[in-house]
């Protein structure tokens, strides 16, 4: 899993590339949390354009970051999931928590 970030004002976009599974979820979580704590993020966007696979660990990561950013008064969105990821996100009910585009 390759992680890169871009911050513009109070919007943090996290670009993920590769497989979001139990092997990478902890590292991704730590990287996102560190970025959130470094500055005042009000919107966290996970760009999943290049995510090729996601299991339940990925769902846990997303829900955990949602609760973290919400506790700080922010919001979260998921951008560009492929068709199989979108199906997983919808089945998990994540679309009820945040915008998926």
Give a structural overview.
It is built from three helices and five strands. It has 101 residues and is an alpha/beta fold. The protein has a single domain, classed as Transcription Regulator spoIIAA. Strands 1-2-3-4-5 form a five-stranded mixed beta sheet, with helices on both faces. Helix 1 runs parallel beside helix 2. The longest helix has 16 residues. The model has no long low-confidence stretch (mean pLDDT 95).
Topology:
Layout: E1 2-8, E2 11-20, H1 25-38, E3 43-54, H2 56-71, E4 75-79, H3 83-92, E5 99-100
Helix pairs in contact: 1-2
Quick synopsis:
This protein is an alpha/beta fold and 101 residues long.
Q: Any key phrases for this structure?
A:
3 helices, alpha/beta, single chain, 36% strand, Transcription Regulator spoIIAA, globular, 101 residues, five-stranded mixed beta sheet
């Amino acid at each position: 899993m390759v992680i890169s970030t871009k911050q513009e004002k109070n919007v943090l976009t996290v670009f993920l590339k590769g497989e979001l599974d139990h092997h990478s979820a902890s590292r991704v979580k730590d990287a996102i949390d560190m970025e959130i704590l470094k500055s005042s993020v009000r919107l966290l966007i996970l760009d999943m354009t290049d995510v090729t696979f996601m299991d339940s660990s990925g769902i846990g990561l997303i829900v955990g970051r949602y609760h973290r950013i919400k506790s700080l008064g922010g919001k979260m969105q998921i951008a560009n999931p492929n068709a199989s990821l979108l199906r997983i996100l919808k089945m998990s009910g994540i679309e009820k928590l945040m915008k998926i585009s």
